[in-house]
Amino acid sequence: MTVAIRQLSKHFVGEVSGLDLRQPLTKEQAAEIEAGMDKYAVLVFHDQDITDEQQLAFALNFGGREERRGGNITKDADYRLASGLNDVSNLGKDGKPLAKDHRTHLFNLGNCLWHSDSSFRAIPAKFSLLSARVVNPKGGNTEFADMRAAYDALDDETKAEIDDFVCEHSLMYSRGSLGFVDYSDEEKQMFKPVLQRLVRTHPVHGRKSLYLSSHAGKVLGMSMPEGRLLLRDLTEHATQPEFVYVHKWKLHDLVMWDNRQTMHRVRRYDQSQPRDMRRATVAGTQPTVAQQAAE
Ligand code: OGA
Ligand code: MN
Fold first, then answer.
1. Which domains does the chain possess?
2. Is 281 in the pocket of ligand 1 (CB under 6 A)?
3. pLDDT tens for residues 162-181?
4. Does ligand 1 lie within 6 Å of residue 142's CB atom?
5. Which residues make Cβ contacts (< 8 Å) with residue 264, sequence separation at least 6?
6. In this structure, which of 59, 118, 252, 253 has its CB flanked by the most CB atoms within 10 Å?
7. Can you tell me which atom of ligand 1 is nearest the CA of 141?
8. Residue among 63, 7, 65 at smallest CA distance from 30
């Protein structure tokens, strides 16, 4: 089968046909998908009824696996997925939607804020691959923003001002902005801020993008309020409809995005009904900035 990619949105997003993700990819196919990711930043695959293992095997064509530890508050004993994929569902180990006041549920609501996966890690994620195993009946669209197009559209003065800015990112900033502020000492240690450049350059095509995320909570060299206002302004700019693609999930869709060039968020959905989404995450290979100042 030949791989074909059709562009879905003004600046980015490709819809891929001609691949069965239950089968191993040839070297050529993997290279075509990787090139497609560099160009479109988000790729959509339909009708992929895959297992966790097949999802992970597909992800590993594009780099190493990012471990899920450090990314949420769920204790290992409570973790639902034996495969170790990131559990982005609203389900507990019993397969039922988590209670409204369940701590894991409250924490996971942070995915409704615009973010780039693992920007709270010193070496943040490269690609994320999200597979829809149960689609929620109401809401739950996932939105993506093209951070390259958003950067390009800034005026020259703003570009010059922010080009070398560095931000602190932490899960405690994103969750804190929703009023989730109670952490154990172990969690505080795990969620210690890391540093990220505000503007990053893609290693293959060299385009710059705004590296924003709700995990960002401080701009080095600026007061907290001044820095946060800047981040809010830039986020408002970057998430205008022109730069955004809305994905309406169908069962067995797989959507893959480049966290170095995009942000995403999930919209509110019916929490009394299941939504089973599972993510395989491809690790990044280098920090965006030296880390010592975050200590
Ligand atoms: C993610 C995420 C959004 C969604 O998997 O990283 O933010 O639609 N998911 O569940
Ligand atoms: Mn995410």
1. 4-290 (3.60.130.10)
2. no
3. 999 999 999 999 999 999 99
4. yes
5. 114, 115, 116, 142, 143, 144, 145, 257
6. 118
7. 8
8. 63
